[in-house]
Specification:
The protein is mostly helical and 207 residues long. The chain is built from ten helices and no strands. The chain is globular, with a radius of gyration of 18 Å.
Length: 207
Amino acid sequence: MTFETWLAYVAAYAMLSLIPGPSVFMVIGQSLSRGLGTAMFCILGDMLGGVIVMTASYVGLGLILAASSNAFLLLKWAGVAYMAWLGVTQIVSAKRLSDVAVTRQTTGTQQAASFRAGFLTGVLNPKAILFYVVFLAQFMNPDLPMTPQFLILLTTSGGVVFFVLMGYALVAAQARRQMRSLRARRAMGYAGGSFLLGGSMLMATNR
């Protein structure tokens, strides 16, 4: 692929990534409720999920999902339910927050849970698989070896996603740092849970 084609891919993918979707809502929710450090693990999980989705698209799984409406719907509603469950759980946790919990440091368990949440949000999205089947083809030259081109696009996508999601996480973390009281932390937890529920609704209503 030419350098101009690669730049076009970066620009197109960056614009698409900036549009708030389930992954953005997930990262904002994690950053608001648990802080930037925990949100970083969510971003890494989402990136790993993206690698799997793009690879599945490359080997043709997207065509299988496109041909099977039942497989598409099953994967879609699994993602919707999981994100909704995370949102409700976060709101309940915020309601139970105490002064002790406010001063508690982020634990490895929270980081692992955040990584898992990001990963499942990224991978439980059948529309992403179908999207990549079509989108990647626009930037790959069929007259050249396909695998090196795919690896370039895969690496580029990971970099773009990282910087975009980090931008959202930093903004949310800045808002969190300005609000240190128990009442404010509860509000942040409610807001984070609401973002997750919003992401779930977005996944549910998108056709």
